[in-house]
């Protein structure tokens, strides 16, 4: 039986991936700060243990007897002066403790922007990579086997764009995106466990079809709820969304401006040879919701 320890299993993507791996018969251990939240979200088949990436002692106990780790952490800021980020200092702590304990393999989800900067048509840099990069470099230099999944945009996020009878898109999105989803990614993760061909590799994770964001939204809604309509708004609408802070507004504008100018090409064929080809169309994915 395949085994994996997951850190970041209570987020939207992480919980979906965890559930899919359980369906595939993987024995899963989840490291979480909030045990009750993890228990409420995840199957009884999951072993849940306390651990905080800010605390090495808790990690030593949580990661005992672990061979393979999957990290599903996310940064939503680019303040380089912050003293702690789960995706920077937190992952560095995980790597250091994993090396002490003899962990065999660490896998992590990251964005496609960090593997293919040439997709940025304006040469724009996605600033959260400045936060993420030190930990990625630390893992690569650690001597531990690593696998990075550089993912395109997830279809899983689409329901969050729906407010009432409207699917709101901010910005002008014309370029192709090879949308992925957590079900196909879970299949890739499954095939990477105990697979030496996946060691010390960076894989791009994309769907098979490149289409624009508005076109993808239309297809999603036709299968999900045809009564909902796609509406496109200019970028300055962000100032009127009532976000909690100016920092949140700035981050959203930076993220959407980056995505707006991102022009993907299909570069995942080598991933498919090792970890399997994606199976779900947009319509197929909607059926799983």
UniProtKB/TrEMBL annotation:
Organism ancestry: Bacteria, Pseudomonadati, Bacteroidota, Cytophagia, Cytophagales
Record Gene3D superfamilies: NAD(P)-binding Rossmann-like Domain (3.40.50.720)
InterPro entries named among the record's database cross-references: Ergot_Alk_Oxidoreductase, NAD(P)-bd_dom, NAD(P)-bd_dom_sf
Name this polypeptide is given: NAD(P)H-binding protein
Family matches, as Pfam families: NAD_binding_10 (PF13460)
Location of the NAD(P)-binding domain: 8-156
Transmembrane feature ranges: none
Domain of life: Bacteria
């Amino acid at each position: 039986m395949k085994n994996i320890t997951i850190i970041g299993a209570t987020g939207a993507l992480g919980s979906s991936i965890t559930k899919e791996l359980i369906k595939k018969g993987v024995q899963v251990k989840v490291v979480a700060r909030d045990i009750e939240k993890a228990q409420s979200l995840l199957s009884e088949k999951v072993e849940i243990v306390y651990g905080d990436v800010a605390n090495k002692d808790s990690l030593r106990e949580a990661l005992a007897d672990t061979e393979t780790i999957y990290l599903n952490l996310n940064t939503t800021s680019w303040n380089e002066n912050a003293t702690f980020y789960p995706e920077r200092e937190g992952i560095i702590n995980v790597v250091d403790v994993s090396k002490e304990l003899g962990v065999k393999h660490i896998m992590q989800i990251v964005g496609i922007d960090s593997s293919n900067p040439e997709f940025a048509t304006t040469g724009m840099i996605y600033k959260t990579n400045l936060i993420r990069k030190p930990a990625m470099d630390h893992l690569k230099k650690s001597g531990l086997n690593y696998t990075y999944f550089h993912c395109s945009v997830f279809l899983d996020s689409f329901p969050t764009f729906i407010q009432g009878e409207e699917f709101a898109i901010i910005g002008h999105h014309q370029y192709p995106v090879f949308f992925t989803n957590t079900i196909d990614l879970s299949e890739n993760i499954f095939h990477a466990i105990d697979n030496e061909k996946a060691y010390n590799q960076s894989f791009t994770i994309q769907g098979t079809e490149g289409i624009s964001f508005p076109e993808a939204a239309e297809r999603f809604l036709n299968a999900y709820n045809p009564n909902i309509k796609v509406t496109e708004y200019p970028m300055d609408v962000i100032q009127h969304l009532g976000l909690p802070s100016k920092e949140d507004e700035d981050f959203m504008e930076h993220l959407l401006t980056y995505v707006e100018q991102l022009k993907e090409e299909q570069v995942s064929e080598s991933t498919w040879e090792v970890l399997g080809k994606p199976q779900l169309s947009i319509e197929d994915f909607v059926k799983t919701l």
